[in-house]
Amino acid sequence: MKSLVIALAVLICMHALAADLKETQAQVFLYRTPSSDADHRFSYEVELLRLALEKTINEYGAYQLLPGKSSNLPRAMAIARQSEHPYIFKTSYNPGLTGDFHYPKFPIDRGIFSYRLCFVNEHRAADIAKADTRTALQKFNIGQGVGWLDNKILTNAGFTVREAPSYESLFPMLSAGRFDMVCRAQNEIINEWQNFGHLGGFELDTSFALYYPLPRFFWVHKSKPAAFARIQEGLERAYEDGSALQLWHQYYDEALAGVSLKGRRIFVLPNPYLKDIDTRYQAYFLTENVSRD
Q: Which residues contact 206 (CB under 8 A, 6 or more apart)?
């Protein structure tokens, strides 16, 4: 009996050791995390990344997807350059990144961030609603986060951009009159109104929307080619079998249904940073007809 107990104990230890060994052999992926629990902007992209990794287990093996350091975008790029493990961050296509980073040619949100609706300071709301041309709208400044590509796109289109030190600070600064407008993606606006509307001092404009093509991608440092290849393959498979679209609808359908573009003036702005982009992303891009102002 004693020998049987010892044998069982040995087997249990061996099983635990094998499980630990398997865990240590799993490839570690890190993802950028928000700086606040109230910031849910990263939820969809994390689940999409997880889906891509799941689709490639047979070829690439087990994985661990773990939260990385919370950071703004410039800091995320610096972390990705130095990280031992692949540190994956998402941002809009920028040719300035392609020297150090690869990007899977799958626009992770299918382009819905191209439409921007705006929160406006209550003291500027009436004047903004009367702006019926881009020139008239350019009289009002726009608050943006540090390092966002939108800053350059908006500046190139003739707008004055003022940067906030963090995402969360955009809304109290708008409330305090530091900005005239804060423009957000069509799918973000309702959730952010629920999270920050209690601050008061601003409202959701219903007179216009901005449009500029804004494909956003996962970015992987070039020192991690296997991680890049795995994510690219996983995203393609998830799209082909429908699971990526199912996830997209799960996260975005309700938000998109809550805000309509109907009846708004659409101001179309150029995105000069797409000049040399690999056009394969367009096969996945959600497009709608937009008229120029």
A: 129, 263, 264
Distance between CA atoms of residues 231 and 221, nearest Å: 12
Q: pLDDT (tens digit, 9 = 90+) per residue, 30-71?
A: 999 876 665 667 899 999 999 999 999 999 999 999 999 888
Residue type, 260: S
Q: Which domain range does residue 47 map to?
A: 24-111+215-260
| Residue 180 and residue 120 in one domain | yes
The answer as to whether 276 is a domain residue is no
Q: How far apart are CA 24 and CA 3, in angstroms?
A: 31
For position 66, which CATH number holds? 3.40.190.10
Which SS3 state, helix, strand or coil, does residue 142 take?
strand
Q: What is d(CA 199, CA 174) in angstroms, rounded to the nearest whole number?
A: 10
Name the DSSP letter for residue 145. E
Secondary element (H or E) of residue 182 = strand 181-185
Least confident stretch, 74-88, 232-246, 277-291: 277-291
3-state secondary structure at position 115: strand
User: Is position 59 within any domain?
Assistant: yes
Question: Is 291 inside any structural domain?
Answer: no
Please report the DSSP string for 204-263 in residue order: E--SEEEE----EEEEEETT-HHHHHHHHHHHHHHHHTTHHHHHHHHHHHHHHHTS--TT
pTM for this entry: 0.80
Token pair 């500029």 in the structure block, residue: 212
C-alpha–C-alpha distance, residues 183 and 211, integer Å: 11
In the chain, where does DSSP find H-type helix?
2-25, 43-54, 57-60, 73-82, 125-129, 134-137, 149-156, 170-175, 189-196, 225-240, 243-257
Of 92, 83, 79, which is closest to residue 45 (Cα–Cα)? 92
